[in-house]
Specification:
- With 455 residues, the chain is α+β, with helices and mostly antiparallel strands.
- It folds into three domains: 138 residues, no CATH class; 118 residues, no CATH class; 147 residues, no CATH class.
- Strands 3, 5, 6, 7, 8, 9 and 10 form a seven-stranded antiparallel β-sheet that branches.
- Strand 9 and strand 10 form a beta hairpin.
């Protein structure tokens, strides 16, 4: 009951504060801005943009906010909490001399709610709920262990529970006794518009940034599962809940196609666990491989494989065609790495058709009924290459490897023993062998494993 009263009182105060701050801006009070750099990653330069100094604006108008009628109820609700000192030590920039601790906590909470807000000071769940969770966690306002639940679409599991890592597990949706108030969770499979669905349960850590780290783990899991098989994505809204408390929404800045049909059988659980942990450890943080992986995931955000064709081709060109698109070497290199020798000519032709298909799409030409299948093949080739390099089964020098295979084929016209090739994707799940997860494994042609890369 205390948690509900606290949430209601703080939300009422935040609504009134939002209107007061927006009115101050409309009345001529200037909201300052600073220039910040965003999007920098590794050697890639970031973009400069203007960030509003919203916290400074709240501080300068705090006297007006204290005069709001909702302030009294908010302070009384905070007065019943233990641990406000810990909350202020973690999140407050300074403690005002002579101010009551409840008032100081309310000031800190208000600054956290409107941090980064624009001139309209709009109060949205994406602003209020994270700030409230910080306060609740910092003061032990919510009893019991906090858990973040997300919905994975396009994948199912036979076991009642699959532990992927410490504090991270998968479970069938049917195992939840109490569902969050979300239509995607409450509809049956036929009505929801998607196939298999699985719940991801994650126990966040403690301290500042715990929820942000939990979201990052969810995004890492989605990336690994997208490399594992096609058609898997998280629902756009996760939910956070503690024992004997209400559900709170937690927006996830990712989504995508969810038409997969991967059912994890009992005997596949170990390989899934090993695969997701391996991708999490070795996921590249910079360079061409990191850029290609990011572009691959952008393609999966599109409505279908045809819409994501350009993204996938850009990723493949970054990995396999450093000379530029005019060299015309991309199709042959993809075929060398992704097809058996006897199938390379046909694979080269299909990749070349997909490249021509991209030009037709740009020109607005009718591409025909088989275009989507070609786009799906390109997506499949890219997935296999990214998976093999990240897991260490192919050298990071893909261009040199592809060219050497093509030269060997020209020099040796007779048939030779079949080489290890990137596995094709079955309709249900990928049968990875134990050797996929051995750190000292090298491919048959003597390639150097990709190795661990820190984020």
């Amino acid at each position: 009951m205390q948690s509900r009263q606290l949430h209601a009182s703080l939300h009422a105060f935040a609504v009134a504060a939002s209107a007061t701050l927006a009115a101050a801006v409309a009345g001529g009070d200037e909201l300052g801005f600073e220039v910040v750099e965003e999007g920098a990653r590794g050697s890639r330069p970031g973009l400069y943009c203007y960030a509003p100094l919203s916290v400074e604006f709240v501080e300068s108008h705090w006297t007006s906010l204290l005069a709001l009628p909702q302030m009294r109820d908010a302070q009384l609700a905070l007065a019943g909490l233990d641990g406000l000192e810990s909350y202020l030590d973690t999140y407050a920039q300074e403690h005002r001399v002579g101010a009551a601790i409840e008032q100081d906590a309310l000031r800190c909470f208000t600054c956290r709610v409107f941090e980064g807000a624009g001139e309209d000071f709009e109060l949205s769940p994406e602003r209020f709920e994270p700030a409230y969770r910080e306060l609740a966690a910092g003061t032990n306002a919510q009893a019991g262990e906090v858990a973040v639940l997300a919905l994975l679409r396009g994948i199912g599991c036979e076991s009642p529970e699959i532990t992927l890592a410490e504090g991270l597990l998968l479970a069938p949706l049917a195992r939840l006794d109490i569902l969050p108030p979300d239509p995607l969770w409450r509809r049956d499979d036929a009505r929801s518009g998607v196939g298999l669905r699985t719940v991801v349960a994650l126990v966040p850590g403690e301290g500042p940034g715990a929820i942000a780290q939990a979201l990052e783990r969810l995004r890492d899991l989605q990336s690994a599962l997208r490399l594992y098989a096609p058609g898997i994505s998280l629902a756009p809204l996760a939910w956070i809940r503690a024992e004997r408390s209400a559900w709170r929404p937690l927006p996830i800045p990712c989504s995508g196609r969810c038409d997969g049909s991967v059912l994890i059988a009992l005997e596949q659980e170990d390989e899934l666990r090993a695969f997701t942990n391996l991708v999490s450890r070795r996921r590249p943080a910079e360079g061409e491989l990191a850029w290609a992986l990011e572009r691959f995931e952008l393609a999966l955000e599109r409505a279908d494989a045809l819409s994501g064709l350009t993204d996938n081709l850009l990723a493949l060109r970054a990995l396999l065609e450093p000379e530029g698109a005019r060299s015309g070497r991309l199709a042959g290199r993809i075929a060398a790495l992704c097809a058996e020798p006897a199938e390379r000519a046909a694979a080269t032709e299909r990749v070349a058709r997909a490249i021509s298909l991209e030009r037709s799409l740009i020109a607005g030409v009718n591409v025909g009924e088989h275009a989507c299948q070609l786009a799906e093949e390109i997506e499949s080739h890219l997935r296999a290459l990214l998976r093999d390099v990240i897991c260490g089964h192919l050298s990071g020098e893909l261009v040199a490897l592809a060219d050497s295979l093509l030269v060997q084929e020209d020099d040796v016209p007779t048939a030779r023993p079949a080489e290890r090739r990137i596995p094709r994707e079955p309709a249900a799940a990928l049968p990875f062998g134990d050797e996929w997860f051995e750190d000292d494994y090298c491919a048959a042609e003597g390639e150097v494993p990709f190795g661990d890369r820190s984020r």
